[in-house]
Amino acid sequence: MGFTGRCIGVHEFGGPEVLSVFDDVKSAAAPERVVLRTRYCGVNPVDVSFRVGRMRGYAGDPTPGLVLGMECAGEVVDSRDPGLPVGALVNALTLPGEGPHAGSYAEYVEVDARRAALVPFGLAADAAAVIPLNGVTASSIVDELAPGGTVAVTGAAGALGRFLVAAASGAGLTTIAIARAADTALLLRLGADRVLDTATLGSDGAPPVDAVVDAASLGPGLTDWFAPVDTIVKVRADAEYTLPHRRLIEANVRRATDVAGRIAVWNRRVRHRPEIVGPIERFVPDEVAAAQERLATRHRRGRVVLRWRECGPVGRPGGSRSSQLTLARHRDGE
Fold first, then answer.
1. Using CA atoms, how far apart are residues 223 and 323, in angstroms rounded to an integer?
2. 329 domain-assigned
3. For residue 334, is it within any domain?
4. Cys-Cys with 187: which of 12, 111, 192, 252 at CB 3.0–4.6 Å?
């Protein structure tokens, strides 16, 4: 059984103008494969990295059509996994470049059942759509840190930072959140033992820590705040560090184990503590360029999603098979 729908991606690397929409057919033809009819997909900075060509090693040749997007939530319409039956609401991690049109910017997404989990009752679909990438990344990072230690998280109030604070505190690590003073109450609720204001760190410095997870990608800037540490975890592959350290870990969600189990754990956590995700801003698929641009807004809090379900078909100006997307401003029916 095949499901034909629209997807959004690129045929060449570049700016927003290279984003295009094209047709695709998805089916769960192999074991442990599931097809979702997408309700929402997350929009993340890594999607922009794929679009501009910074992820060529994973993207491969975009000419046949590289579909963007690394997470989504939707109803199962075809399944080869008894644990994810047709009709169930599921959220999943997707890996662009892994196969033909493997990203989540699509009406129908074929996913690996080992990277998907049932969405529990009470968890909204838009929130579920933005759990897999940051949730799996955060818990995988924390698993690499020495138990019982002290960890500092930069960018702690950001999209990944919130998951990191919750994961580290949940694992019993003494967790120091680096953020603006205005975010102190939020981060303490998420489990931080202490919140340090970025405005005063330059003069006061941070207390000794065992590890720094650099979710803000400050790179050499860490040297101004911290004494030498055992471990630095970098989130951006191109980040470089002058702070003395013994071990450098590069976060890479593609190496994560037990992905479905990790997503399921975060689904339960976020259902009870939605502030881990924060506010969600919705765009329709035709606004994908604007949605990606929104990611660059300074001090933005919360998440950005594309809303596929109930927003009508994605436009194809001129009726061609692959065409540039319009930026019609009709988010959520406006």
1. 47
2. no
3. no
4. 192
